[in-house]
Amino acid sequence: MQPFTKLTSIAVPLDRANVDTDQIIPKQFLKRIERTGYGEFLFFDWRYKLDVPDSVTPNPEFVMNAPQYKGAEILLADKNFGCGSSREHAAWALSDYGFRAVIAPTFADIFFSNAGKNGIVLARLTDDEVSTLMQRAQTPGYEITVDLEAQTVTDAQGFKASFEIDPFRKECLLNGLDDIGLTLRHSAALDKFEAKHDNEFWSAPKTATA
Amino acid sequence: MPQTMFEKVWNNHLVASPEGEPPLIYIDLQLVHEVTSPQAFDGLRMTGRKLRRPDRHIATVDHNVPTTSAEDRLHIIDQTSAAQVNALRKNCKEFGIEFFDVQDASQGIVHMIGPELGATKPGMTIVCGDSHTSTHGAFGALAFGIGTSEVEHVMATQTLPQSKPKTFRITVDGTLPYGVTAKDIILHIIGIIGTDGATGYAVEYAGSAIRALSMEGRMTVCNMSIEAGARAGMIAPDETTFAYLMGRRFSPKGKAWDEAVAHWKSLPSDEGAVFDRELHINAAEITPTVSWGTSPGMVTSIEGKVPSPDDATNEIDRKGYERALEYMGLKAGTPIEQIAIDRVFLGSCTNGRIEDLRAAAEIVKGRHVAATVSAMVVPGSQAVKKQAEGEGLDKIFKDAGFEWREPGCSMCLGMNPDILSPGERCASTSNRNFEGRQGRGGRTHLVSPQMAAAAAIAGHFTDVRNWPNNGGKN
Question: Which pLDDT value is given to residue B474?
Answer without folding.
Answer: 39
